[in-house]
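Comment thread on ticket #2218

A.B. wrote:
> Attaching the input chain for the structure job we discussed in standup.
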Amino acid sequence: MDVDLFRKAGQRVAGWRRIMILSHDRPDGDALGAMASMQRVLQGLGHQAVAFTYDTVPPRYTFIDEIAGFHRWSNDAPADIDARFDGLLIVDTCSWSQLEPAAEYLKASRLPKVVLDHHATRDLLTVNHTDDIYAIDATSASACGLAYEWCELMGWPVDCKGGEALFAGMAADTGWFRFSNTDGRTMRAAAALLERCNLRADILYTRLNASYSPARLRLMRHMLDTLEFHADGKVATIELTREMFEKAGATPTDAEELVNEPMAARSVMATVLMTDMGDGVVRLNFRSKSPELIGREIDVAAIAHAFGGGGHHRAAGARVPGTLSTVRPAVLAAVLAAVT
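C.D. wrote:
> Ran it. Output below, let me know if you need it in another format.
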């Protein structure tokens, strides 16, 4: 963390009385936890802070929604939205494509922005000569971990509901502290929150990882029917279609983290999930294992970037115009080139 940069960002946000908080579309636990915690922290400091989501919060994250009381985004006239706020805090993304539901507004807005993010790939979100601060630390395992450190740096109190949201986000983005991004920073922050707020890790685990719908299991069954291995099992591809969702009675939120399933195979170095909902766009999710395990570096963020996306070295995504039949060959070729 660049202490001077993050202190400057904190001072900027502290100077706003009315603060809008946004994150990416289809938010995960890290995005929701960061929004919820920062909203509570800023409200506790006497600010008017409002966190927005673009759609219904997935059921497994209902407890975070209850902590925050998220507002549903509405694309009102940019000038009308600007009039209600003094500044924008964007967390867990710095990508126009991920902000698409609000992108039209953001490109017209004249409000200053502070971006709090931990992703290696990013866009320039500054438009209309706004005075923005990009508080980005790609070495942080999660946006919630970064938010925790930011609050500690600024001396901003985090209440126990906010602490619960932070812990949940850190756990979600590290696969319950088992992914390669788990480090001492994350574990120290998690331990501090557990002790300070008397959190129950077992209850939070159940809320995050044992609260899926039966439809998700049916969707997984359909997805695994498409499982293919390539390059002597080093690469796994899986697919989802609108028809699979309909048969399973599932929603897009039920697909969260399904990309990780083939990674359980010993031989697999990298996985790509291709999702075609019939809307002319194929959503790509990439995962790879740590080089210490497979003997080489497979940077899926670089692969995703080639398709207009981005993310982390081990986890990334992109959205590509087309259908499975048109997109699949190029995606598979790119992953194979990185592995072989």
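A.B. wrote:
> Thanks. Noting for the ticket: The mean pLDDT is 95.
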